[in-house]
Amino acid sequence: MKFKIPKNRIIPLIILTIISMIMSMILGLYRVDKMTQYSNESMNENYDSIAEKTAALIKQGIENKFQSITVDANLIGQAGELNKERILSLLPLLEKKESYIDLAIVDLEGKGYDITGEELDVSNKMYFIKAKYGEVNVSNSLSYKNTSEPIMVYAAPIMENKECKGVLLTIVSAQIDMTTFKDEGELEEGLIYLLNQTNELIAFSKGSDIKNFYYDRVIAKGYLYSDYQHKNSDSNPFRLHHMLMEKEEKLSYVWFQKPLGINKWTILVGRSDKISPITENILMLTITTWIITMAGMFLLFMMMIYFQSRSNRKLIRMLYYDPITGGNNWYKFRIDMNKILNSRLFRKKRFALINFDIDRFKIINDTFGHQKGDEILKEIYYVLSKWVKRGEPFTRYAADQFYVLMTYQEEEEITARINELDERMHCLRDTKTAKFYYGVYLVTERKDSVDRMGDFAGIAKHTIKGSNEVCISYFDDVARVQILKEEEIEKTMHEALKNNDFVVYLQPKFSLKGENISGAEALVRWKDKEGNLVAPSSFIPVFEKNGFITKLDNYMVRKVCEIIRVWIDKGYRVLPVSINLSRVHFTDTNLAYSIKQIVDECNVPHELIELELTESAFMQNKEVLIRTVVLLRQFGFLVSMDDFGSGYSSLNSLKDLPLDVVKLDGELFNESEDIERGHTVIRNTVSMAKDLHMEVVAEGIETKEQIDFLSGIGCDTVQGYYYAKPMPVNQFELQYYESK
Hints:
- By secondary structure, the chain is α/β, with parallel strands linked by helices.
- Among the domains are: 330-475, 2-Layer Sandwich (Alpha-Beta Plaits), CATH 3.30.70; 489-655 and 719-738, TIM Barrel.
- Helix content is 47%, strand content 21%.
- The strands form 4 sheets. It has an 8-stranded mixed β-barrel with strand order 18-19-21-22-23-24-25-26, surrounded by 4 helices. Strands 1, 2, 3, 4, 5, 6 and 7 form a 7-stranded antiparallel sheet that branches. A 5-stranded mixed sheet has the order 9-8-12-11-10.
- A hairpin with a 2-residue loop joins strand 6 (149-160) and strand 7 (163-173).
- Helix 10 packs across helix 11 (370-387).
- Mean pLDDT is 85; it is low at 1-5, 233-239 and 241-249.
């Protein structure tokens, strides 16, 4: 059978994967962006510091030249008259000291000669005028020698007897010597401009474009550092995106403008706005790691989806398959049956729901073990799979109960096919002598649920349980009336519990030593709206079936404790009272604590409460039962086994359970053809219980002969009509407490 993995389990995982991928991408880009921004901020801060150092170095260089030209001018001032011959003889001497492009000496009218003897006139130059009046200075704008080479001109007055008699001019290249900044390695690819107070070019570094130098145009190639900081503040998180955009638009420099401290000049240092190689490597490593992480996450989510799919398949298998037979379970059977009932097939064919089981299958389990029992169930399932027709769903419901939805044309066909199935079942080696019972419900309409139809088939089967005459029973009107009665009970049970319509009756227990009362058993009665008492046999099986019995048992424990508390307060010498606990309780691992809490709330000594559990509880959950019994005895409660001898595992349960009391089932005392044989069984059972240090109570005792026999074999206590019937609490109190 094919199973589809539920899409509603996978789609959320796919959505989660996509969201996680997108979030990872955003976080990755954000991380790279932050790293880029941090790298650029670090570089900018570093360059800002370098720009200040550069300004200081350039200022120092200019001041050094001022000092040098001043010394030279003073020497020339001592040389006497400055005629052409004297000038041409002095200038070569000065040239050897510094690497000048040219040297010149002019008179106070601005006329003179350079080192080559060429005549020149600088009378209109500001640097000449300032030097003439005694100020050592340098040209305030970029000049050109022979219209091609950019130069800077330094001018110093030639003084004699504190009077200026001429001006010494030294011409140097306007290109800034970058070797001066060899310690500032970051400047190797940067640009430096020396600007006057109006941002006109004075000097520049190698690689600068000076032909069309305009301050605003140069700045437009990037941003001033202050503007750059503002542009890349935290309000704009996508720094990497803007860097890429800037590169596409060739906005490639960050400019740092610093004051020089001379003539209100400034230097403009430009840094290429690109990521450093180290940062680029880090970013590449980060991106690579991010890609690997994304791939890993994708693989992880794919594995999660894969394993979720496997888990879904396992879950479906758990939901749909029976672990014992390997076939479909009741849940899957119900789905398949509903599909048939809601399809066109239901209008074309007739259907019957069959429920069958093996009579006293527990005997097989107890005799041969559960493993052998499971093997038999597998064989039955296999035979059933070969018997059903195509399209007829079937399943094992629970224990040894099986269901089949079979098609038929006439009712006689149902009986014939069931007889055929019964013959096949008896061909199995381990079920040759077993008795199978079959309940049939004819599905004529769809108003009832599959579970309800299954109940109808089960009720039909139970009407013939134990019969040797017939093995097939059809659900009819009598069975339907029984169902309606059960439904009426279920409708009123909660309100009855709320209204205290369940009342406590007490049946005395008598010690055979002196025939004195030694205790009582609490029994429940239901008082209906008319005040009539409903027999427990009418409602207890229903309560055990629907689970309401647990609430009723807790109710009885509390009621009995309240009664005992009243008796204690009246000063009576209170005798222990036993209370029945249904086997349904023993799926609750906290049962012992729940009972203790109820008893303690009523402030009743634990030794006054005896808890009776039926032998059938031992078959429900052996481990939980034993653990609960041990806890109850540790808390100080008495624990007894009720109806001992009515089941098929009496000896096993007696061996494994640490009990205080064993109550012999009344059926053991029914008259039979071989009375002596029955007495032998009872006598040895009492002896065995005594050897296990257990008290023995015989219930259902009605005759003097039974009393004499039990007294003779050492039975401790009896309970039955011989001494007293169950009675209301007030009658019990009047008869056994107030009369004393």
